[in-house]
Each structure stands twice: as structure tokens, then as C-alpha cells.
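Sample intake sheet
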Amino acid sequence: MTGSWDFAIDRGGTFTDIVARRGDGEQRVMKLLSENSRAYADAALEGIARILAEEGGTFGAVRMGTTVATNALLERKGERVALAITRGFGDALRIGTQARPDIFAREIILPSMLYETVIEIDERVGAGGEVTVPLDTVAVRASYGQIRREGIESLAIVLMHGWRFPEHEAQLADIAREMGFTQISVSHEVAPLIKLVPRGDTTVVDAYLSPILRRYVDRVATGLAGASLQFMQSNGGLTDAATFRGKDALLSGPAGGVVGMVASARPHFAPEEPLRLIGFDMGGTSTDVSHYAGRFELAEESVVAGVRVRAPMMQLHTVAAGGGSICRFDGMRFRVGPQSAGAQPGPACYRAGGPVTVTDCNLVLGRIDPAQFPSVFGQNGDQPIDVEASRARLREIADAIGDGRSIEQIAEGFIAIAVDNMAAAIRKISIARGHDVTLYTMACFGGAGGQHACAVADALGMTRILVHPLAGVLSAHGIGLADVKAIREASWIKPLDVDFGGALTGLEAAAVADLVGQGIERERILIEQRARLRLPGSDSTIEVDVGEGMADVFHARHRQRFGYAEPEAVPVVEALVVEAISVIREPLRQPAAAMEQVKLPPAVSAMSGGHGDLFPSPKREELEGPALIFDPTSTIFIAPGWSGERAADGTLILTRATPAIRAHAPGTDADPVRLEIFNNLFMAIAEEMGVALQATATSVNIKERLDFSCALFDASGALIANAPHIPVHLGSMGESIRVIIESRGEGRDGRGIRRGDAYVLNDPYRGGTHLPDITVIVPVFYDGADAPSAFVAARGHHADVGGIAPGSMPPDSRTIADEGVLIDNALMVDEGRFLEAEMRAILATGANPARNPDRNISDLRAELAACVRGAESLVRTAHEQGAGVVAAYMDHVLANAEESVRRLLGGLEDGEFTYAMDNGAQVQVAIRVDHAGRSATFEFTGTSPQLADNFNAPRSIVRAAALYVVRTLIDDVIPMNDGCLRPITLIVPEGSMLSPAFPAAVVAGNVETSQVVTDALFAATGRLAPSQGTMNNFTFGNAAYQYYETIAGGSGAGPDHDGTDAVQTHMTNSRLTDPEILEVRMPVRLDRFAIRRGSGGEGAHHGGDGVVREITFLEPMRANILANRRAVAPRGICGGGDAKAGRNWVERVDGSVEMLSATASAEMAVGDRFVIETPGGGGFGEQGT
């Protein structure tokens, strides 16, 4: 039969899925390998040709999603790119936020840069548009010429404040076109949004990927001989092939899955029923989850393959749990993923000697029928999957455990962990953001999703699941249903009451022009206008429709998501968004009933191993679980208590037939399955607390620099789990809890610890670290408990708590009173009532009270909100699992960490190290390992006595450093909790600088001495050379402004790796404020931020380099540097060379230069420049060995 066929194609990394539909409703589905050079040149063209050859007819419209750009990014196989950026910022994208991705990694691995070379452009435009350095076009032409001679044809142009003042960028682009560059990506066109680093990364991505994409698109277009060709964008909309560009291609395929999920689910909701969906897309190596509540959720900024991208992109959360996830027993607990067996060797059942995977577990449990798998395995590629191989691998694990459990029980345990991991991912996009997931329907797709959907839904309290008949190719199906779309957005950064109509008009005109240019008539274009609003001083935006009552909508949504609102505040419009959508209904938008004509094998069911026709007639029939449904592209397991019904369009609707019964954990004895689940659960609660704190805080320190930590503690104050935040906070917060217990427990304060209470402290002598780090502690009472069952705590670095210097980090403090307001175990919330007046009174005490108590109160409320979130989660867990079980597993996770450290100590030897500091003090440590007792002693005898300056470190700092070091030496993912220190005895002499007495100054102890202690411990083990050994604390301010930052340096080398340049090390991991944000908010100009090349120590493995940071002041201010390693350089070990020490100086506007010590202050006049060079890391081993 002839006719015109339309094609929807998802070209994935492994398979290319094709859904074709003829005008009369006939539909075909085909799946091909994406790469098969022996059989065809291109899978998409081959699939089209095969279908037309078999069915006859011609091709009409073709719509595609492709991973060509994503794969090029992952494999770093894009175009050669040159980056043109404002002079002084050539390393800005490489340094990024300066944070390291894994705080417990000794070898810090950062994503590689996409650009090959950098041109630093002589030009500078200030935050207000003033040109301080004119554009040097002569130098530009010379630099361009050199790049062209090197054969580079792709150019990314990114200038400071170019998003708002694009004239210089436009001139650079014009010159580039004149000189023959074939790809020119300009930041104000690619991503006209404030923030130099993510906008720059996005522009480079576009330059790197667009040429690769263009070549692929042209190849496909040539093969289609002029047919209509559109591509799926990451934002969920189609665009003409000619306008498809790299920055919009990174989620091209997965975005189609979300569109398909919504379109295929809509017929199964009543017209007035809210369409609430959780997307559950489980594949071979990972699972993508998504949230839909009436509108596609687009992320403002995403990280793909280690690269920040600021472009509208479907908001997906990915977890490393798929059918190929490796299952193993580590001697204490069951583990699932994140490693995957991949296609080679694949699961054990693939006959290639692979490990146990989730697929093997499902096979052994009878949830996969070998007969449904193709016989493509074995040496000759003609064998079915091997159930016995799966059973044999599981039997090996059973033998290792040795407790008599069957291989089926082991498989069930691994499945339970995988389900828990996937449910946790869904919680992050729903419950953690204020959505009641029990009101949602799960839309299940992907090849492996149907095997676990019921279990994941039960874990979340969901009662309805939809499985489309094309679930295995839903991305292609969704691409065929998508609208043509163009989105334009721009930063605005003005209060809501400032008119933005003109800006919206400009964005709308650009979006409409895009679609009109694709041949779409104006009357068929629908316009949506939105604004991203935030509270003043906050960075957490909420998107609302433009129209009446925007402020009310914003405040209501803010309360829902973050738990509080400030209705008296006028929101700030951070950015404006205009979306132009074509409302053309192309033939691919078929009625639901057309699915009956899809040419696919019939669905079958299996119960207890038997096969049969589940739906022998078109009438609706139901099947009760347990049962297996074999759809053409996926297998669905209907669990006990669930029932399945096939709708008219072929969708399988699963519903909870009987209420789920949440069984308590079987006993309080340690079980390796439950141990892993509780490990993950406790960590997830801490992470949710961190999300809540970051979202609700208003200070830059907490919200942007992420200088905060959240953690859970047992009833005795032992650290159970913490989110991976700031290491120096974590080991010391337990001391704060114990202070509360010792002083208030059992009514010792005359009142006792009560439900609804919250306490606050920053006292360095009673569990604190230094005064800016304020800790909020909330006791947790399980049902009916009279005494606290557990505790949760949040610690944040406040921008100012008083003292003799703005920012409360004075380099010259000599007593604790110089450093700010000391808070000693104060009651902040009295049985649910926030004591604001009392807190303000505390912040106003002393000779130098807090300068901005409103900001302190706001951040304290944010810390409280985080603690309340954590307490509620713990109470809910205790209700579901049993209070005794939760308490028991808190003990078990401590024991798990303890055993991990005892195993580590078996490979350590005795060692010692003495490390001098700039102020003449020294930290001396000796490590003595008792191999027979599987324990160790860290002794600090010989360390200098208490100091007259502020480098004294409370004992809690030493404990935190020791905890961090032993956790980092373990090359495995274990929780950092107090169990890590059970095998360690700490000997810290009383009266030393590591155990000071009141009223010693301590502000540098937390940030500087902690780094010295950490470096000394690592050096004593011989496993890692000292890193830069300082946090380079830089503060400045006046009556109107206060600012604080810590600055990266080089990391130390190890026996098998070099150090890393320009990165935060050891006891901190705080971010830097983006250069453009800094200049917009503060009266300063950042002139240079670059890697200090050659500053790392030499050796067989060289240390990482430090950085150079230069800031010019535009208002009179006082600036302070509080640092170390300016006189005594970071040491190399085992023959490795020392790094270069840091330096600081002030360049006065009159040309004079003032050199500064490690701890100094300077009164900065307008035009003065403060320069900081941070140290590198020490080298390891003799050079040449």
C-alpha cells in the first residue's frame, strides 16, 4: 500500500528507535543499532529505507532526537575551539566555582576543558556599563590571525558583563566573520544571562558541538532529499534542522521521553483532573526521573558531562541504577551500583563472564522470561541468556555471607536496594521540593522500568502506574508528538514593580521571528510569558506566569517549596522568559485509538511460569499480581497487591488493589541489605536538610558559597550521617550536641530538653569552632518518647557576628571578644515559638555587636527550617520502621564505618610529621598503629602551646581533621560518621594551641590551623603531600557592605598522582561568587583571577598550582587577609619539592606598593587594588624517579 509516512526517531547511544505513521493511521516500530558500519552508514536513514521498502510509499515529515552532541561531549570529540575572553579571566572557566567534586578524593579530578586555546582580549566594561578599557581591535585581529593559522575555525566569545552590554562582543564577532571563522558563538546570543562562568561554559559548549551537529544534520538532510526535517531540543520543543545548535541538543532524546510521557498519560485523566506525573525511565545503566504538574519543568542551569550549561533544559534527575548495575557484597553490606556491567561483559547471564547485576537478580526471581530475550549471546552470538550463570554468581555471594540465606533472598535484597535508590531519586524531585508524591501517577517507561515500577511506587506511597505500549521507545513516540518551540530569556534583576513590558516585547519578537523563519504563520504561534522571581538577597528563583497577582503567586509557591514566605517583600525579577509555540497539529499527533493499528507482537502474560494471552479480546480485562506482562518493548512485573488493566489505547494501567502494608525491618540485628538501605536513608535525610538550608538562606555565604553543613546524630550526640558539605564542620558538630545533652539533659538546666525546642551556639570552647559558624540544634522525639531519640543540626557561616572587623574574621584579634558575639547554648525556639527578641538581644551584646542582625535572624530561620525538615523525616522513618529499629541501625552504621577504618589501619605504618607555621608555631603529630588491636593513636605532643594570636584551634577542630583524614584514606563510599574515629585515640595536650582555654582568640584555628593539622596527618601517613595549607580568608567591608570569601590554591601530590591546580582542598569546599555577581552586588572590580603557574612543588609527581586574584575597590573599605603559608611554604614529601609560598600586597592608586604579611589589614581607597597569590601544593617523590 502506498502513502506518505511520517517518522519520529530517537537516535540513542546504543539503539536508534523509529516510530513511523502513515496517513491512514498505520504505524510501524523499528529498533536498530545506532552504530553498525558493516551494515549501514546511518541508522536513522537505514530505518526509514527499510520501512518504506517493506510498506511502500514515500516519506513526509521527519522528526529526530539525537545523542550525537551528548556523545561528543562525553567523549570530548567536539570541534577545536578557541575562547576569546576579557583579559584577566583566561582561567575563569577552568577555575569555575573552585569547589572539588568529591570532598573525600585524595586525587582531585576535574572535568577537562572544551577549548583548546585562549585569547585574552584587552577590553573591560564595568557592571554599570562604563568602559574602563577600550576594545583593542588591532590586537584582536593579530590574535585571531594566529588562531586561524593553527587551523581553528570555531570561536567562543565571552566578555565580562557581555550579557547586558554586548557591544564589544558584537565587534569581536564581526571581526571573526571577516577573518573566516566558520562557527562563532557569542555569549549574549547563546545565553544572555548574568554569571560569567556558566554563560561562558554554555557558549563554549555551543562552539564545541554545533559544527559536529551541523555535519550530522546535513548528512541526514541530504539522505532525505528535501523532506521536512526537525530536531528535538533539550527544552522539549522541536526546531527546524537549520536552527538546531549544540547548546540545545544535550537532552534531545530524553526530552522526547518526557513529552511522550505527558501526551500518552493525558487520555487517562478526567478533563478536570490535575495532570500530575512522576516519570520513571529505567534503562541499562541509569534511571531518569522527572516531575510534571501541568507544565514541563525546565532547569535554568544544568551540569552535563561535567560542564555547566545555562540553557532551557528538561529537568531530569539521574541515578546510577539500571538493569546493568553491579551487585556485590563488601563483607558488611550489600551494594548496588554505581558501577555498571555495560554491554561488555554485561550481566552474568550474557555468557561473557560478567558480574551479578540487577538483571540477573530479576532473572533468578522469575521476573524475566528467557524466552522473551533474543538468542544473541555466547561465543557465536546464537545462545539465549543463561539463568544458571546468574544463579552461580549469586551462589558465590551466598557462600561469602555464610548465614544460610538462599540465592533468591540475596536477589531480593539487591532488588530492594536498587528500588530504594530509585525511590530516593524521586523524593529529591518531589517530596524535597514540597510536592505530595502520593497524589501523583507514575509514568513508567524504558526497557527495565516495568520490572520495578510497583516496588518503587510502594516505597513512595503511590497507587497508580501507567505503562504505555511503546514504553520501550517512548522518547521516539514523544518526539513525534512535540510542538515546535522557541524560547528566549534574559536577565533583568530589577524589582517586580519596575515595568518590564519593553523587555518582554523584545524577547517575544525574537522568539516569534525564529518560528516565522521556519515557515510557521504568525497566527499559529502561541506566546507564553514567564518571569523568574526571587526574594531580595536570595538566589532561589521560582517561575511564575506574567500577569496579575504575580507577587501573591510567588509568595504562595515560595511557602510551599521552602516552608516560609516574606509577603511584605517586593520580589526581584531575576530573568524574563518568552516561549513561542507552534500550535500546528501535524499528522504525527494521532488519536489514542490509532495505537490499535501498531504492527507489534501481541502482549502476553506469565504467572508461575505459564504463558497465555492476557487480552484475547478487545474488552477490558484485569489481572491480579503477581504476574508478568510481556509488552513488545518491555517486561512488566505486577507485584502482589497490584492489578493490571489494559486501556483502549493499549496502555497498561496498574493500580494498588489492596493497601500497602509497610512492614518494619525484621529485627534490630544487622542485616547487610537493611544496612545499605539505612546508610542511604540517613544520608538522604542530611542531603534534604542541605537543600532546604541553601534554598531558604539569604546570605551569599550559605546560598552561593555553600559554607554550611547539615547532619544527623543519635541520642548520645554521635554523628550518624552528613551531607558532603564543609569537612571542618562535620567532625566537630557532635561536640555541640553533647554540650546540649550534658547541660540540659535530664532537667539539669531546670527546664530540660523539650519537644519543639531548638538551641543555638557558636562557643568554640563548648562544641563550636569559631564565632561566625553558628550551629542550630533540634532534638528529635519519636512517638511517645520522653527523652530525645536523636538530634539534627545545621551549621552555617554567617557573614558577620560582630567583632573588630566587618565579616568577623579579624586578622589581628587577640581575645574571643575581638571576634564577635559568643553564643553559649541559647534557647532559640521554646516549644515551637521562635524567640526572635531574645536572639536579637544576644546579637546586640558586647563591645562589637553583630552589624546586620536581620541577616543573622534570616539565616538562623533557614538553619531551623533545615533542621525541622530533617526531624520530620526521622520521625516519619521511625513511625514506618519502628523506633527501636532506627536506633539499632544508627548503631550499625557506626559499626560499619568503624570496621572500614580498622581494615584501613592494617595497611598503615607508623609515621610522624612536624609542620611549622608562619607565626612561628608548629603542629607535631605522631601516628602509632597497633596492627594486633586494629587501632591507632594520633598524638600531638610537641605541638606549640596556646598562642597569643588567633591561630588556636579548639579540640573539636582536631577531631574534625582526624575524622576527615581517615575517611579520605578509605577508597570506598562509606558514611563519614563517628564510627570512623572509634579505632583512633587522639592525644592532644591541654593548654596547647590545639586545646586552648578561654578567652583565647580562635578565628584562624577553624580555617587555617585545621588545614595545618590535616596536612600534617596526611604527610605522617606518607600518602599525600601537603596542599596549599591555608584557606586564604579574604574579607572586606564598610557600614553598607560586608563580604567574605576563601580562595583556592594547589592540592598536594601523591604516590600515584599529580596535584590539582586552583581548587579548594581538605577542610573547606566553599564556592566563589561568580565575577559578575560579585561586581553587581559589591562596589569592587575583579581585575584578574588566574592560575599561578609554576607555584606547585616539583617531584616525581608535581603539586598543583595556586591562583592569583586582584580586586580594585570602588568605595573606601577595610580589607583583611587571614592566611598562612606566606613565609613557610607548603612542603613536599618523599623527596618532592616545596611549593611556592603565597603573597599579598596592595597597589595604591598613587603607584605605591605595600607588601602584607599572612595576617594583615589595609584601608582601601577608591582605585586601590588588593592582590593575593595563593600557594601551590607540595610535590611527591624525587623528580626523575
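Comment: The two ends are 74 Å apart (CA to CA). The longest strand covers residues 485-495.
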